[in-house]
Predict the 3D structure of the following.
Amino acid sequence: MSTTPRATPDVDLAIVGGGLVGASLAVALSGKGFRVLLIEAAQPPAIAPQWDERCIALNARSQHIVQQLGLWPRVQAEAVAITATHISERGRFGMAQFTAAEAGLEALGHNLPLRHIGQTVWQAAQQAEGVQIRAPAAVTAVTASDQGVELRLADGQTVHARLLAAADGAQSAVRRALNIAAELHDYRQSAIVTAIRVQRPRAGVAYERFTPDGPIAVLPKPGDACSLIWTLPTAAAERAMALADEVFLAEAAACFGGRLGQWTALGRRQCYPLLRTVSTRLSAPSTMFVGNAAHALHPVAAQGFNLGLRDVAALAELLQVCPLAQWADVPARYAAARTQDAERTAGFTHSLVGLFSNRWPGLASARHLGLLGLNLLPGLKREVMWQNLGYGRQA
Ligand SMILES: Cc1cc2nc3c(=O)[nH]c(=O)nc-3n(C[C@H](O)[C@H](O)[C@H](O)COP(=O)(O)OP(=O)(O)OC[C@H]3O[C@@H](n4cnc5c(N)ncnc54)[C@H](O)[C@@H]3O)c2cc1C
């Protein structure tokens, strides 16, 4: 839809959505001389409950971005370094292991509670220089042209902005208002997320075990606990959610195998239906899509927020290098800069789910060989490792 150009926009950049990605973008633009308006539908601190029991595995590249945002010292105390990743398949001997030492790094990434990083980023956005926040305020209509955007809010007010960053999540209202399609894939799986304690924890090791029903992952958490992400077909996940704690713990432990000894304690369970939603476009006139509004992925490879942070870093850099008079070029330049990484990361994640969820006997042997190959073929292993580190390929 087009809008009447306005000579004097109210703000330079409107960010719709103050989740992890939108708030990170606001922080990235702090003190850069722009007038930024962050619009979030939820009422803080009511945003906090969405920052649930999930842990976020931040890869090495994301750690660097969080450092550049000035937030690393504030989240570091709650972050547990991942120094090795162990990948295996239930019922087969093939396994692959990635270590920080092989990558020449101190850590492959860090696991940290979503609640902690969410609160930290939101507080930093509130303190960001040049950033105003409107919350709760839901955007209900958007018109956009090369001259700028007009946003209508639920209270009837309008905002005119030179550019719009849509960070409003997988169901992006901005995307729908601009009639941009998204590719949807229902995995017919749900991820159960909770905390566990185990008899023989291994400091710094993240485990991902593929089963025909879906992957089960155990990652180190602050303290002596671990976070568990257990992916199951939807009906099986519903059944598992209804199990008594001790039965759930026994079934999950049996699915994972004996590597960590007995599982001894269980936290609160939460269940997430798994859908892949990928916008067919990363930009529109005067509009850029970032984070889940651009690509909401299966959590199997822990790529979602990591990819969103790379969107943030790329967009913040473009906004700074382009003079305001040339900001109309930013959306196309942003899409050009982000397409390859977005497609590769979404494709990598999707093919991982497909490969390991498939029960065809021939494919089972192929993935067994694939896991062996990862350990045996240094080139292949390096490529997968650098994708997981967030660098796409080795620099
Ligand atoms: C089980 C699970 C485990 C995961 N683990 C990892 C991991 O280990 N590593 C990783 O990198 N990623 C992980 N992810 C993915 C990660 O959680 C998401 O990619 C990330 O939280 C997306 O953030 P976002 O800000 O883009 O979107 P959201 O968190 O969806 O935020 C969107 C915001 O926009 C607001 N909003 C929506 N509509 C409007 C409107 N009309 N007007 C104003 N505001 C609006 C919403 O209130 C919300 O605050 C995981 C996901 C799941 C489900």
Notes: The first strand starts at residue 11 and ends at 16. The chain has two domains: 11-184+275-389, 188-274. The radius of gyration is 21 Å.
